[in-house]
Amino acid sequence: MAPTPPTRREVLLLAMLLLVILFFSNSEPPPPPSPTLPLTPSAPVLEAHTPQPLDTRLTWGSSRPPETTIASHVPGWTILDKLYILKGVVYIVSDSPSTIPDVRYIYSKGLAIKPGQEEDQKRLPTDRHIRVISTKEARKLFGTSAQTIDGFSFLVNDPPQFITHYYHWSAELWFGFWRAYSSLDPSISPEGNTTLVPPRRIMFNHLDNVHWRDYADMNQLVLRSSFPSVSMEFVDDWRDRAEMGKAFVFERVLVADRSAAMLSFNYARYQRTAAAAFALPGSMSWWQPIRNNVVEFAGVDPEVGSGTTGKPVITYISRQNWGRRMLIPEHHDRLVQELHRIRNEYGYEVNVVEAEHMSRVEQIRLAARTTIMMGVHGNGLTSLVWMKPNPRSTVMEFFFPQGFAHDYEYTTRALGMVHYGFWNSEYFTSPGLPTPQYVEGFQGKEIPIDGEAVARLCVERLSLNSEVDD
Ligand SMILES: *[C@@H]1O[C@H](CO)[C@@H](O)[C@H](O)[C@H]1NC(C)=O
């Protein structure tokens, strides 16, 4: 049927509407002229107003040095203001030492972690590593001033052992660091707005500059996309400062120590050093400032993946060509079939990918858009930290039956998302978790999975939609 031509009345109404729009858009006041001195607030960063000596030290002269204060602390993660270092030894200056936690919860010898109680004892710090001294002693030891290490620094007192790995870097070091630091801003918004300043430098006093990258080159990408202007120091720089024989003082520093974190209750419970930091206050959106920087760098709008009204994205990270920790081939095929079935039936987006065949940026982009991520226990699941937590966000991890490890379970939950562990057709979620166990078959190529059970749970998780729409 041909459309009927508009009536005179309709034409008249349309003309009136146009006039009204024209009138209101014209009567809009012009935007105020931009202020003529837009550079004033940021100018001092680049140059001083008046000539002055370069500010390199904290001087107390004949009085006593300022005391160290602790801004935030749990075992292994401590934020200190005015922490001193001299000849490679860390000094907490305090006239009320009873308010300072036992230093073994702050710092260790920074040795490699080996199992056994004897090894645990061996890593505990001595006077040659960290000391708590009075202001009087500090005056005697440091003299009248200390060289300033300005702004906020991150000092990592760990050996390379757990650094050169994407999971340990992003989901432990970076995770714990930011979780501890974010305790100073418990009102970080879901968009990631925060009052925290980025760290100026990250200092490793036990590793050199060729021992912090990982085989997938993710560590450096995460570092430089989280904080594009952060600088790095390594063991030689630590030694340089030590050999100068003068005290340095951190304006503010977060000291991370894996060995010290291992003394926490949360470590005993989850075997994750970052878990210690979760005992601190913090926002539900604590991770978003980092996540947003990284996904935005990868070219994704940080808001992608939020809310529950968009098309759900299911991503299965396959390890079938990895050689270790793989599904029974027929079970893998069946799982893929089932995922395609629910894609066709419900209109989900389904991705079956192998992380090793994607660029770093592609991995982050896909994770950022993913609603349900799944795969066999392994490093590929580290990307879950780039997902956007929403009520449907889910991680499904496949283990050899009876096997379990907290790594990705803990990490998922720490972000406010839901994790399911699968033993073939059986699945479990917190708080009903099994005890961690590396059973025979855990690392093998014969891990069973019931693809139909997985698909059923996907549909269940995604049909939350109707209840919690936003
Ligand atoms: C977050 O910061 C941006 C940029 O300043 C601003 O536009 C937005 O309104 C802020 N959001 C909240 C919730 O404060």
Automatic annotation (TrEMBL):
This is Glycosyltransferase 61 catalytic domain-containing protein. It is found in: Membrane. PANTHER family: GLYCOSYLTRANSFERASE, PROTEIN O-LINKED-MANNOSE BETA-1,4-N-ACETYLGLUCOSAMINYLTRANSFERASE 2. The keyword DNA-binding does not apply. One of its GO terms (cellular component) is endoplasmic reticulum. Pfam families: Glyco_transf_61. The keyword Membrane applies. One of its GO terms (molecular function) is protein O-acetylglucosaminyltransferase activity.
